[in-house]
Amino acid sequence: MIKLFTFIFSLLLFCGCSATKEQKASSDKQGEVIITGQIKNRDFYPHVNEIVLHLPFFREGKVTYTTDITEDNSFYFSFMLHAEMCEVSIKPYMEHLYVQPGDSIHLEIDFKDMLHPVVTGDGAELNAQMTQFTQGGYYMQDYRIYPDFSTNEEFERLLEKEHQERIRRYEEYVQKHQPDEKVKQYISELLKADYYTALFMNLLYARNYRIEGVDIHRYVPRLKEAAALLDNQVITDAHFRMSQEMYYYLHATNERLKAYDQSVTLEEILSPLKDTPAMPYLYAQGLSSSLYELNDTTYFNSQREKFDLYIQSSYLRNSILQMHQSKKGFQENPKPVSDYILYGRYQDQVKAQGFMPYMKPFYDLLEKYRGKMIYLDFWAPWCPPCLTEMEPLKELRKKYDTEDIVFITICRGDNRKRLKEVLDKYEMHVSGIEHILTDDLQDDNNVHKMYNQLNVNRFPHYFIINREGMIVNYGSMMRPSYPGTAACIEQWLGK
Predict the structure, then answer these.
(1) CA–CA distance, 266 with 285 (Å, rounded to integer)
(2) Which of 296, 328, 343 is the last residue of a domain?
(3) Which of 79, 84, 301, 477 has an alpha carbon 20 to 30 Å from 486's alpha carbon atom?
(4) What is d(CA 140, CA 238) in angstroms, rounded to the nearest whole number?
């Protein structure tokens, strides 16, 4: 059985496009993609019962298909593709798998050698050539720049140095393996997207950490260079990473936002790229952020006309609509989502057999405070937005009786001295706020697994848990300073 979990979970299987505007206006190439597979040496990891396939989207979440491994050790995926080519991943076995509409692809995965699956069928040659590049020692995704710059000139020098090393490796790959022209085109676009991702991401780093010698506004003209890369029907993780950093860069360089002007609209923020191929991606990013961070459909509903105007791509439309339906379902009934976050597909087994032992510290907290609401704050000492919320957290705590709700902060890391320094600085030793260091919970490997299960992929991250131990809200936006946080707490306290 194939299950679709959109953005960690989905309460609705959203199939195909609605027979409306996108079908008439979109020029997307459409076709069913079938991926079959066979597991060898399954007894090497007998506890692995499913295979997960991710389609690219923004960092807020992936469109995820999950299918069971059958008794004969096979698996099967089928989905509609509305693009010329799409990069999917089947982690941890194959990080980059390239599919085209109508493809029928077969994977052979050996659990004794999981990272080297054999691809046959349609697209076998394309994937073989791309794998030679991505897994053959030629591909370097992340640029290693911060924190080694303090001026624009230093930044540009380091960026160019990293870029030229990637060009050198690409030329070495081409000379040695002689890939076809299509593969060279895909790799060239991948390298360009990684370059612009690094450009805008490091500028945001300079902004966040107040590097005075770096003028981030200097690079606004380069937005249109990056936008041109989105003018095709090739959909990869790199495109989404790049457009996401472009989106945040537009926020950082908007003067009205810097002045805390709450009246500025999403359309105004994105206006420098209004007539470029990036606009659908950027608008989709804005809508997905509102849905993911607020767990609310109100803003999306208010933007529905603009959504239809700016987002014609069937791939983007379907992804956003799936997310909207998921959040709508969560609003109506949070329990299935809560169960998935806390227990995965194995809730009964977890309770009976401890299937996910790395989650035990979390379960212990739920048990310790059974009958009370819990407000959880996942943070890190090196995270400026986390520190900004310390004072609002104390104010939020003062509003409520400790008999009704407990406040817990969980600090990532093992530096007890650093934790104490932060708590002392912000006078956080307040009655009714419990502070936990992850090193006190379990080893780092298990902490990492717990964070993955809870989808804590950036800081700060919050959970609001009701008296029955059910997650009723979560995300980066449920911070103490956000008015909706108190409203949510009071709703579930019955006040």
Answers:
(1) 10
(2) 296
(3) 301
(4) 12
Total domains in the fold of the chain: 2
Sheet holding 104-110, edge to edge: 74-82, 30-40, 104-110, 113-121
DSSP bridge pairs for 381:
none
- How many Cβ atoms sit within 10 Å of the Cβ of residue 209? 12
CATH number of the domain encompassing residue 389 = 3.40.30.10
Claim to verify: residue 162 and residue 247 sit in the same structural domain: yes
Whether residue 374 sits in one domain with residue 470: yes
> How many residues make up the chain in this entry?
495
Name the phi and psi angles at 51, rounded to 5: -120, 140
Residues 414, 439: Cα–Cα separation, whole Å: 5
Alpha-carbon distance of 432 to 430, in angstroms, equals 6
How far is Cα 270 from Cα 403, in angstroms, rounded to an integer?
Answer: 46
pTM, 2 dp: 0.79
The string of pLDDT tens digits covering residues 164-183 is 999 999 999 999 999 999 99
- Under the banding of pLDDT at 50, 70 and 90, the label for residue 150 is very high
Mean pLDDT of 110-116: 93
Could you give the strand order of the β-sheet that contains 373-379, starting from the edge strand earlier in sequence?
433-437, 405-411, 373-379, 461-465, 471-475
Per-residue model confidence as pLDDT tens digits over 431-472: 889 999 998 888 888 898 899 889 887 889 999 999 999 999
- State whether the Cα torsion 228-229-235-237 is positive or negative: negative
